[in-house]
Amino acid sequence: MRASGSTTAFRHSPWTPALAQFRSEPKPGARRAVTSPHLDGSSARRIEPSAAPTETSFGPFRLRPTQFLLLEGEKPVPLGSRALQILTVLLERPGELVSKKELMTRVWPDLFVEPANLTVHISALRRTLRDGQDGNRFIVNIPGRGYSFVAAATSAVI
After folding, report:
1. Which of 73, 111, 118, 151 has the most CB atoms at less than 10 Å from its CB?
2. Which residues span the domain enclosing 62?
3. What percent of the chain has pLDDT over 90?
């Protein structure tokens, strides 16, 4: 048997207006804005998702970040979500140094993780890409600073 005042207490709870803003499913055709923290800790900026999905090709691989999918030819490549996020961040700026701090901020937002976590996921990513084998070189480490995606990469709208 339920106490009669329990539902009334919830309806008048100070949390009710805050909870009302959340919906379990998005409206059809609704676009989501993503916030990304600035590296200097200042306020976040809004990033609107692009209308058309993109694909980045490098070596025998294709990354479809909007689908969270890495393909080798037409075959999906099993890769953990954190390693896939690291690859996505590196491919946003191929040939440029991406600091360890930026990678950790982007892949583990609002969490404190040891730098060893980044090393473990980079290692898994390199193993999956067969980096360093058969003349393939995709990711290089600049000791103490960060990582750089060094292979030729092309992006296209699919």
Report:
1. 118
2. 54-157
3. 49
The tally of domains found in the chain comes to 1
Q: What is the pTM of this model?
A: 0.65
What mean pLDDT do residues 14-26 have?
Answer: 42
In a domain, 88, yes or no: yes
**Is the CB of residue 79 less than 8 Å from the CB of residue 130?**
no
The two tokens of residue 76 are 């999906």
Q: Are 143 and 92 in contact (CB under 8 A)?
A: no
Cβ contacts of 131-139, under 8 Å, gap ≥ 24: 136/59, 138/58, 138/59, 139/90
What residue type is assigned to position 56 of the chain? T
Which CATH number do you get for residue 90? 1.10.10.10
Q: Using DSSP, state whether 69 is helix, strand or coil.
A: strand
Return the structure tokens found at 135.
């003349």
* Tokens matching residue 158: 């699919």
Residue 15 domain-assigned (yes or no) = no
Cα dihedral 134, 137, 142, 144 sign: negative
